[in-house]
Design brief:
It is built from 2 helices and 2 strands, in the order βααβ. It is mainly alpha-helical and 65 residues long. α1 runs antiparallel to α2. The protein starts with a strand and ends with a strand.
Length: 65
Amino acid sequence: MMLAVTDEEARALDEVLDARLREMRGEIARTDDRAYRSDLRDRYDHLERLRLRLKQASIGGEVYV
């Protein structure tokens, strides 16, 4: 799937992802349940990769996610 977003929309998505990733770091640090922590880490990694792709793509103008 391709989704075109403007630079402004890409910045907004980056801000939302950054905030959620910060929350998740704290949640990962506080949880004692190994399975839940593993799931959180997997989700964190997925969102971080998405954020990096978004930043790389936004350099060229219109962004496709």
